[in-house]
Structures are given as C-alpha cells and as structure tokens.
Amino acid sequence: MVQRGPCPQVLANGACSDPTCRHEHNVPNCDACQLVFKIPNEYRAHLKSKKHQNKVQGLAEAMSTVLYCAICQIYVQGMASWTSHIRGGKHTTKARIQGLAPTIEPEVPEEVPNHEFCVVCQIHILNRFLARHRDSHRHKMRAQFLTFRSVIEEAEKDKNGVSVKGDFDFGIIDPSATGNGITMRATIARNDPSSRINLVQFQLASSQGKRTYSPFTVSGFGQSQAAVSVPYTSSPSLPFNITMSTRYFGRYEDRLELVFEDVRLRTRFLITRTLLVIVGNKADHELLRPKAPYQPRKRVARQPELQVVEGEPAPTLKSIPYVNTLPKAPISQNLAKILATGSPKEIVERLQTLFLPRVFASETYSKHFKTLLWTEESQMERDLEHYDIHQAKLSRHNQYHYLEVPGLAEKRPSVLVGDTILVQRNGSREGHWFGGFVHFVRKEEVGLRFHSSFVQNPNDRFLVRFKLNRYPVRRQHQALDSAFSQDRVLFPAPEHLHPAAIPRSTSLRVYNGTIASNPRQLQAVTSISRSPAGAVPFVIFGPPGTGKTVTMVESIRQILAMNPRARVLACAPSNSAADLIALRLIDLGADVLFRAYAPSRHKEQVPLELLPFTYRNPDGHFSVPSVFSRMRHFRVIVTTCISSVIVSGIGIPRGHYSHIFVDEAGQATEPEVMVAIKNMADNNTNLVLCGDPKQLGPIIRSTVAQKLGLELSFIERLMKREIYDEVQGYGKSVVKLTKNYRSHNAILKFPNERFYGGDLEPCADPKIANLYTNSTHVVSNGFPIVFYSISGKDDREASSPSFFNIDEVTAVKSIVAKLRSDRRIRITDNDIGVIAPYHAQVLKLRTAFRSFADSVKVGSVEEFQGQERKVIIVSTVRSSREFVEYDLRHTLGFVANPRRFNVAVTRAQSLLVIVGDPSVLSLDPLWRSFLNYVHTGGGWSGPEPTWDTEEPVDEAGGYDVKYRDAAQQDMNAFSRMMEALTLNGVAEEGEGDNVNVDRPWAEVE
Questions:
Q1: All domains of the chain in start order, with CATH
Q2: Taking every annotated instance into account, which residue ranges of this chain make up the domain C2H2-type (predicted)?
Q3: pTM for this one?
C-alpha cells in the first residue's frame, strides 16, 4: 500500500532510488486503467503498452456516441445509457410534468460540452481522450481511406481536354451468355483540337496484383502492353474495346487506368474508370433484392404493463392432472436492475461478485443455475420486443379473435397453444392491456380468447406484444429446487467409480445385428446394461454418423430384457429427436412404450406411427391416461427434457425409473437435463448421456449467460472431468464411437482430423458414398467435395440484422437445378439439403426454390444437426471486404464457429458443396485450412485462391490484419502514382545524369 506523504528519496530525474518504497511520488496516475505509479519511467512505459492503448481507445469509443434529452436537458453517453435513462423515474416524471411522452427520440447534438467532434470518424470524443483517439489505429485507417477516396474521385474526373466515354458497368449478365465474351465500346475523346496528347500507358489494376482474377480485358489500341505510345492528335477520338468473359457466378470489379502525356507541357496525368459486372440471374436479383434499405432498429422505451385484463385460458393448460404446484420463480428486482444496465462484461462482473456463489459445488448448484436461468429469461424477454406489431388488425369469428403474425411459420416468434399475447387499442390509456390466451396456432395466424369485457370495432388498430411462455423456465426452477444433489451425478470423481472390472460383451445377444460387428457400440451397450445401480453417469460420445442413437436404443432393449423390473425414462431436447427414439422402439408394443407429448403439441405434428403410443383427452389434447396405475405400468416413457416433468408432476415417485437416458444431450442446457434427473432420480438411478460435445451446444440468447457457462451442456461439462478421459474411462464411464456409417472418406477426412483426432473410420455404404465420385458434379474424380469460389455481396434489409447474399442464392439454385436434371444419377428433393448460417439467407433461398424445388429442405445449421442428406450445399453468405470497417470477429464469428462448421460439413453422405467467398472465409484459420484441403484435393471451382494453399496455416490467425495491410499498400501505391503524375513532369528522350554538362547556365543578374 502507498504511504501518505512525499518520498524523501526522490532523485533529480524524478525517479525513486528505492524500488521497495511505498511513499507517494509526483507521478500522474492512469485514470483509464485505474493504476497508481511511483516511478515516472514505469508510468511512461505503461502509456506505451498495448493494454493501456486498447483501454483508452475502448473508453473513447464508449464515450463517443453522445445523445441529448430535450426533456431533461442533459447529455447521455451511448444508446444503452439512453434506454436506461428514458425508463428512469426522473425522466418519466419530467415528461409527465411537461405533458410529453417519455418515449422521445434522442437528439444528436452538433456540439457537446468538453467534447470535440471528429469529422473523420463522425463521433464526439471527450477532450481528454482526443489526442489518444487521433493516434489510434482505427482513426488513422479511416483518415487514410477518406484520402484514398478523394484520390479515386480525382482520378475518375476527365481532365486536360480529354474525356473517356462509355458504359463501364456491364450490369447483370447470365453466365450462359458470357461464353464468347461480351464487349463494350468506349472512346477517348480529345476536346481541344490544338492539344498534343498521347495515350502512353493503359492497364487494369488487377494486373498489378498477385493471383488476382479479373474477367476483363482491354483491346483496340494496337498493343496489349503497358508503356505504349498511342498518339491520336490527328483524330478527335480513339475508340477501344472492353471485353468481359467468365463462366463463374459473382460480382467482379476492376479499375482501368489510362495514363496520358501532354507533349507540349511534358506532363502526365491519369484518368481511371471502374469496371463492374454481376454474373447471375437478373430475375433473381429483382425478386430477392432488399425490400427497403437496412436501418438498425432503434430500441425505445416500451409502454408499461400497469394493468392487464386476463383472457380465457386454453383448455390445454389443464390437460395434465398435476398434483404439485408449479413455483412462480420470479426474478428479483435487484437482479433485474443489474441485468438491465451496463455492458455484458460489466454485468458478468457484477453477477460474479453479488449473485453467483464463489464455489460451484453440490451445495451451490441450484443457486448458480437459477441465476443463469433468470439471466437468460431476461434476454429472451428483451428479444421478444423485436416482434411487436404496430397497427395490427383483429378479426373475430364466434368466441375467437384472429391475429395474423408475420414470421409465425418460421417460429419468429415462436407461439404455442397456451401462450399469452397482449394487445392495446390505439388511444387507450397508457399501461392498460388485454391479455389473450392462444387457443390454436395456424400457419400465419393465431386464435385468441379475451376477457368478456374486450370489445373490438372493425376499424380498431392495436399494438401487439408477445409474452414469454414462462412454463419451461418455471419447470427448470422447480427441478433445481429439488433435494437431489448427489456428487456421483453432478460432480462424478474417481472415487465414485464402481470397483468392478469393465463388463465384457462376449455373451451379449443383440437385437440390432450391425452392433455385433462394432466393438465400441457393443462395449457401450454392455457397460450400460450391466452397470450396477447407482453408477456414475455413462456417456456415449457419438461423433457424426457413428450410430449413437442406435447404440442408445439397443441399450434400452438390453436393460428391459435383463431386468424385468427395470423402467426407462428416455428424453431428448427436441420433439423430433424424441420421436426418433420412440419410432425405433415401437415394436415393444403400446403396453410397454408410451410417448408423452406436451398438451400444446398438435396431432398433425406427430408421426402417424406414434399416435397409438399416445393418449388424448376428450377435448383432443395430448395428456396421460386417466388411470394412474397405467402410467406406472409403462416400462419406457419417451418425452422431451422439459416435458419429462409430466411423470413427476402426476405423482410418479422418485426412483420409479431405474434408468434415465438423454439423447442429443449436447443440445440441451444443464437445467433442461436436470428436469428429469433432479425430479426423478434417487440413489440407485443410472443415467446415460448420449451426444457429441464437438457439435452445436444449446441455443443461448444471452451473451452474459453464455459467458457464465449456460452454453456449456451437462455432457460437455462431464467430459472435462478426469474420469471421462476417452482412454482411461473407456467402458467404465465413456465410450467414443468411431465407425462412421454416413459419409464418403473425402468428406469425413477433414473434420475427423480436426475435431476427432483421426479416430473415425469410414464405413459408409459404398453405393451411397460413391454416388457422385465420377460424376459431372465434381471437379476432380474421386473427390466429392466442391468449393464454388464466388465474390458476391452480403446485404441486409429493413430492420433485420440478418444477412443474405443474392449472388450465392443464384449459384445454389443453379447447382440444385443441375442435380435434379441429372438423368444418370436419380435423386429426389428429399436427398438434397441446403444449409445457410443466416435466417435471411434461408428465407431468400426458400423463395428462389418455390417455383421449381419446393421440397428441398433449406434451413440453419441447427435445423440440420442430427440429420443427413446425400447432397449437402452450404451457402456461407458473408462477402464483406471493406477493409477500413472490417472486423473479423463480427464478420465471420457466426460463420466460423468451429461447432457450426463441424455440423455443416458432416451432414453429407455423397456430395458436399460449399458456396462462398474465399477471400473472406480464408481470414479464419479453420476455414483457410479447409479451403486448402479442398484446393489440394482438386475440388476448387471458380477464381483461384489468392494465397498459397501449400503454406502451413497459422492457427493464431491474424489474416484479417494482413488483409488490411495489403489493402493499405494498394491504396498507398495508387496514391503515390497519382501524386507522381500530378507533380512531376516528363523527361525528354535521352535525359540522364550527364545530360546537363554542355548546357549553358542561365545568366544571373
């Protein structure tokens, strides 16, 4: 600790002679980093450190967006603070006094006290941060780019009596029309007949780069080399041709640089023209272009919900005869306030300090996850604001009011029977709402029932607000509050392992014959079926296509056969995954197997084969048999993780099920999995988790909850523990399946080596795996992976932040059309899957396919997890290369997520096609490695890579920095060329070092 009072040992240079001295020194402290220094040299070194500079730049950026509140007459720093401000009591009170609505739009002031406006970055900067801001890398890059743009604009001007005329934008050209090239005629015109000007050099900017592809060529000057002399003084114009020729989809841009010499003035000058072309489908561009320019959605204060008149609940809410009370589990006001203010980093720090237990253990397990659940719920509530509907219409038929919901078919928002939707008539008093319960959901509309006091006129318009269905969250809180908290389940350690040897599979008679020839599957089934009661959770680690669900189903059959008293509760995060389990067990019969559905599930959403294994009440809603003993009689119950609450909720006692299985466990949050475990497990219950922690985890909306661990699934957390080592724990606690029955070896090879240590063995059916190896759909025979290199343009529209790329839509559409028209290899639409990481691209692709391939499944990576298709096409979408604004984390973070990548490239059985911009994708080390693999394998189609694919990939990354540096060098080179041509004259022929020796000196007076 620094002692009070001046230091008696300070030397003349201001430094202290004693490095252990604790006295105060006359050295300024760093306010930005909140550090105290004793020695000036240390302070000066700190100022130069990268950590300090990043901190200062971050503070400057954070303070840069200054808004003005006209009601309170104060300045507010940033949109986040603005949102908090207009929700505050002081602002609301002042607005009421002034007779104004508190939800005013912020003003952007021209002048701000103690700030200066940076015209380069278009932001206000605090005076004390101004010098640092101007010295920041971002400011310098923006300034340089503005300079470059001005140089380009100057170069594009006609000058010195010379003009370059012609149409240099080829527009949208169909690739079928580009075979022999398309030529545009252009002209160099001399406007001053007395001038003597020559064209001395012409070139394309792309010719100066390395490995740069350009479809343009220039001809008509008699020579195709630069540094030519083409006089045209005898003619007022000089025509020339620009030819565009390429068979590749995408957008191409180049710059034609024409250097002229004024013979009389002995000066040179430059005129440039930008050449543009889009190779694609004009109809697609018309159909799919942005409906409106992208405008980020402004978050404003919402009207409060002071009084809500509840409607008539849907009958489904009473379909299950629950015997226990579901807790409300409301979020505390203190926690809500913390979650509503500050950056994610600040909120994380506050939660760790004030709410989360310091030690994560069985005793603190419930408190830890309940806090994370509330954090996630808070974010989900905020995200629902995006779907508010203004000026909505309601129509009425009998007792129902019908509301059309845009995006309902896409589950954006997701609305279930039993949910509540609030409506407020235009002109109603603030805070007064009617709550309508959802009674049915159709493709684009919902049916609501309101309170009898709700009256609607045909011309009424409403503000519609969607409310989060809290039942799933409350069910998780209920489970977390249960008394079950065994370490052998939640925190298994070596001492919890049973001392018996690993069960051997020599005498096991399997139901599925393929398992008998797969030693690892057989070992997993044996270990699970013969584990003693109360064992540690067993993990079936199943990489893509290795048959993890088959292994789980076989294990269930063996357990039922070996132990007549055994009962199984089998769960999965989604209904589709749970249906798959049930479909593979239907031969057990309806007396043994029961498929439990939530009452909100509609009959049409259930496979016909499973309907005999369900129960519906007289109203037609899914429920449970009225005879309680019958539910206890079923030996296998299959349901989702959340709906597993049904068995505990109707009174089935803890420990009734000897085994609890969770399939696709990596896709569920830990509290989701605990709904079954903490409600139904006892000291003897065995737990089996089946999944792949290398694939996509649960979907978490809150950045804060992600950082605090809610995105880490239960199976992944266990796999990090000592006893789940794949070698040491083999057969005791874990078995990793290694035989891949899905993909061709070339498709499997890269993800196998990248994510699974090369352990996977290709065992796919050759008839399927080799379907396309020697077809016209691949570039290189025997290598069924194709990367279509395309430089497109990613776009956004209206207020949606999701990206789409019309150029890639056209390319994918062409690929699908070619696949479907192949008469040698016959496949159906159901054999083709198209994956896009952005929802907007999914919608554009579906629109494009509507006329000719409506049955081809198009979806996100999440929608394809657990699925497979003979052909998978991946549209990567991103193609933004503005190097000044470039931010790799934001531009590629979603596309380059390793798990997302792993899922996307492991769905294909016979043919994998990737459509993307290599110059963007290659900035990420994972994608660069994959692109190198495809290029080396001969699967590349389109313009060649701009880097050496044989060069080892630097896993540390930094390729975006190199990209920006290269772009900066290009700008500098062009700017220097312009400067040289503008300032310097042209030497006469023969001039050199000695040319002035015989020249007389001018007379000097």
A1: 3-134 (no CATH), 153-280 (2.60.40.10), 330-469 (2.40.30.230), 475-737 (3.40.50.300), 747-956 (3.40.50.300)
A2: 30-52
A3: 0.84
